[in-house]
Structure formats: C-alpha cells, structure tokens
Amino acid sequence: MPWSFPSPACASSTARPSIALNLASEPGRELLRELAARADVFVQNFRPGLVERMGIGWDDLRRRRSDLIYVSISGFGAAGRSAELRAQGVVA
Questions:
Q1: Residue ranges of the domains in the chain?
Q2: Model's pTM, two decimal places?
Q3: Is the per-residue pLDDT at 20 higher than 50?
C-alpha cells in the first residue's frame, strides 16, 4: 500500500491538506526546507537533537526564512533523563 495513516493525528486531520515526506532521504529533507521557506510557522515534534542531525533544525531553516516561527514540541522535554524517549500523541 503506497500510503497509510500512521497516527491518530492523521486520522483526525482528514479535511486538512497534507503531504508525507521521506525525511530519511536528502530529497525529502530538501523539499521540507523549500516548503518551510514559504511557511509562516514550522512545527516539529522529533526527539531533541534529531532535526539538527538531519539538517532541518532552527539554524538550518532560518537561513532561508529569517522570520520563520519555529515550534519544537517533545514528549518529555528538551532536557533531562527522559528527553530522548519517543512519544506520540495528538497535539491540539
């Protein structure tokens, strides 16, 4: 199957335009950078440090759009013993 709904967030957002990007590939990350350069707000919920390693962190994206509002959400905070744990949930 070429597509799937991997989370409850996707199922609750069926009326919203959406796109799936393969961020494991450089073409997918480059497309994300291009989209973020045209956006007002960018929201990510990866574990702390991952977006920097992928080249899509705040410093990377602000080079293309200096007034971008960058929101970072993590399940257990940006620091502390649980920061690296994975989490998934619906963000309202």
A1: 40-79
A2: 0.72
A3: yes
